[in-house]
Amino acid sequence: MDVSSPRFKEKAVIALADPTLRQALGQSRKGFVNKRAELVAALPEFEALRDQARDVKNHVLENLDHYLERFDSAVTAAGGHVHWARDAEEARNIILGICERVQARTITKGKSMVSEEVNLNAALEKRGYTVVETDLGEYIIQLAKEPPSHIIAPAIHKTKEQVSDLFEAAHGGPRKTTVADLVTEARLVLRDKYFKADVGITGGNYLVAETGSSIIVTNEGNGDLTQTLAKVHIVTSGIERIVPTLEDVSLFLRILARSATGQETETYTTLSTGPRRPGDVDGPEEFHVVLVDNGRSKMLGGKFQDMLRCIRCGACMNHCPVYGAVGGHAYGWVYPGPMGSVLTPLFVGLDATRDLPNACTLNGRCQSVCPVRIPLPELLRELRHQQHQRGISPPVQRRALGVWRFVAERPGLYQFANRLAARALKGLSGRNGRLRHLPFASGWTALRDLPAPEGKTFLELWHARQT
Amino acid sequence: MPESRSAILQQIRAALGRGPLSDAAAAALDARRPAHPRIAVDDDDLVARFVTRFESRSGTVARVSGVDAIPAAVDAYRQAHGLPPRAAVARPLAGLAWPAGFIHHPGPAGQDEQMSVTPCLAGIAEIGSLILASGPDSPTTLNFVPDHHLIVLPAGRIVRHFEDAWTLLRALPGGLPRATNIISGPSRTGDVELTIQLGAHGPRSVHVLLVADADRATP
Amino acid sequence: MPRVGLFATCLMNLFRPSVGFAAAQLLEDAGCTVEVPMAQTCCGQPGYNSGDFDAARTLAKQVITTFEGFDYVVGPSGSCMATLRHDYPKLFEDDPEWHPRAAALAARSHELLSFLTDVCGVTAVNAAYTGTVTYHDSCSGLRGLGVKAQPRLLLGSVEGLQLTEMPDAEVCCGFGGTFCVKYPEISGRMVDDKLANVAATGADTLLGGDLGCLMNMAGRLRRQGSKLKVFHTAEVLAGMATGSGIGIGDGEH
Lengths: 467, 219, 253
Prior knowledge:
The structure holds three protein chains of three kinds.
Chain A: H1 8-16, H2 19-41, H3 46-62, H4 64-77, E1 81-85, H5 88-101, E2 106-109, H6 113-117, H7 120-126, E3 130-133, H8 136-144, H9 160-171, H10 179-196, E4 199-202, E5 206-208, E6 213-218, H11 222-229, E7 232-238, E8 242-243, H12 246-260, E9 268-272, E10 286-292, H13 296-299, H14 315-319, H15 321-326, H16 337-348, H17 365-369, H18 376-389, H19 395-408, H20 411-429, E11 434-435, H21 442-445, E12 450-451, H22 458-466
Parallel strand pairs in A: 1-10, 2-3, 2-4, 4-7, 5-8, 7-10
Antiparallel strand pairs in A: 5-6, 6-9, 11-12
Helix pairs in contact in A: 3-12, 9-10, 16-18
Chain B: H1 2-16, H2 23-30, H3 46-56, E1 60-64, H4 70-80, E2 86-89, E3 103-105, E4 115-119, E5 122-124, E6 129-133, H5 141-144, E7 148-154, E8 158-159, H6 162-170, E9 179-183, E10 188-189, E11 197-198, E12 205-211, H7 214-217
Parallel strand pairs in B: 1-12, 2-3, 2-4, 4-7, 5-8, 7-12
Antiparallel strand pairs in B: 5-6, 6-9, 10-11
Chain C: E1 3-6, H1 10-15, H2 17-29, E2 33-35, H3 45-49, H4 53-67, E3 72-75, H5 78-91, H6 98-108, E4 109-111, H7 112-119, E5 128-136, H8 139-145, H9 149-155, E6 159-163, H10 179-182, H11 184-201, E7 205-208, H12 211-223, E8 229-232, H13 233-237
Parallel strand pairs in C: 1-2, 1-3, 3-4, 5-6, 5-7, 7-8
Helix pairs in contact in C: 4-6, 5-6, 5-8, 11-12
């Protein structure tokens, strides 16, 4: 997928001016936020579960090599195959190789952010395969030829009317206008595809080292139809998605749906352990897991290791006021919102993603809802630090910081400058109490007045009062 | 690719600043069986909690007096929903006294299948879910393809937590089944304007036949 | 009597000295001796949040040295005080000389209202304010320092004051330090959302504990032509909220 993160500001401004997007984002996100809040309030164990989830993830990361090897052995023992991909290209080639070997024609897909990350669909389509996204949201954006704008609700930016337009264009009339009719139409169209599919590709929410199972968690059942009806099931997952045992799975099931969609559980949790067995009348004949590194192992042991705890629930973006204002597409790659603002620079480089760590008020709401307690604001600040050290931050900002530091390091000069500013700004404002324009603060005064100082600084007034 | 496997493992170990784990350390990790916090299920009546939770997710429940009453309950459901007298019925239930003219087969469920009747491994009271283990006696297509999925759940098979269900899974003769489906009501989607719509891809209706007589019901 | 060093935040010092005097009075009423060291400047947060950790460390050292002799350091800002409490020890994580000093200062540093209630045990103030107010939870104070119940407790004791909660009181107002000038369009949407929630309460006064947020919201209100009064919570609690509030001059009442 192309990286359009360098155009963050431009795309954000366009998004802000889009009333349809605002309508779509506003209601949906509020639903997630409110439902999550109700469930969390009703669950006294929630904070303890978050602590434990953080600790288990940290434990896994400290022993990642061991658990990956155990998982590999367990999948093999169950009759499946594990493939290791160092980067996106290797991941694509492994999957292309399997599709070619089984002479696939139609490929169905359950939701997988890793497949977006490695840009799989384009590679498959280039080789002539028919690729069908089966998650309703993914299907909608596939028709719209757009990337997902949210990691669990990929079409959250689309209104019902826009979906009606897309379906009418793709399926022909008569135009469906209710959500029920739209869902039924997609159901009918996609039913055929599941039964026709040669290969079904899904993501993996969890990979269980103990049993060699890969787990998907869905509401629609599309992932299950995808992986049950195709002749070959391929799981794509990041290497960090390992959990040691089924007991650990319980823990994550208790926090995932609550954090993600504000439900006690999603409708379907499915553990897949190997291919069809003797006597089975359905299920895939082959079971493959593609373990994707693609930069993850480089995050281990460093300042960004905490980010590898992420379980892709989307709570951070649901609660992020910046995401809420601009939507997911402005971020310009696969992962939007706070988690994406950390991951994108790490995956595609600091230079192309200069805005992402900065387009954040560090208000901390993301961290306060993260089920695995990732210190997102701290990680974003660390990225700013790396930008500063590498000289990537804008020259204007660097000069301003330099002046600020020079003055603030010198208390006498600082007080003098403040006294001067207090008088000057007060003078400019007259008796209005505020300024409408200030040449060197247009970022502020473009949208706001600047409340004027009272004329003297606190320190000089206090000093005068004491003497 | 074998070289990728070793390269990734090597990179992980380098990042962690160590070599492969010692046998003793690895064995300790393999023996790890954590006891994580569980959600308080104080209510001694697991059945009531299961039913409340399952119904809150748009599942429906009919109480059945015993195994022998299952065919009549299935038929009543069928008639109430205007379905033809035909279903994919998992093998353990095939021997029940099905009404005359009721056609059933053990699966797999094909594209025209409208109704299925299956057993399950257990119910989980914690969240009101059913856990189904795939196998020759319980094909996975029966759980996802038909519009109507009827699940026989003996009341005595409702366990408290996920952990209890894992214990049952591990005790299965072949270990973990190929597919373990934990199902909490009908298929749903919120992908259009977060409006919940049932029957996205899987069953539009999931109906539990809750069998009172636990002992005899065990398929 | 505990000896308190009052941390004069940059915005308070330059734009709103009355907040400093309100803070001092509240502290004195709570039985503290208040001193204001003249050698103080900025806590360093602008540098820290811009990724210039070196500049942040330099200013942190200055603050640590200036306030080392006090029993407590108290400031009328959740944002600056969270920097002292949480960020200073992190900045000197690997510095054996400065880390203990940073940690010691952090342990003695408090946001004004949480200091008054949690440390001094104040449960009521002797002040009156006629009006319906709504309170914005500034993010650093709320999530960084747990400031939520304290302002509401104290505001509850102000005679004549009626508090009406706004929807999404805990959502950021769009200030975010330099964020609001770097991304003015996004910040503008956020502050407009916030002010719509403020308006929904029907309150005549907006209160908060951080001047950054208050100036952002007041500045936008004035641009919209609104005369809604905006005060720092301390001004109301000290009985000093007598004028027209932030961003409205003497000439227009």
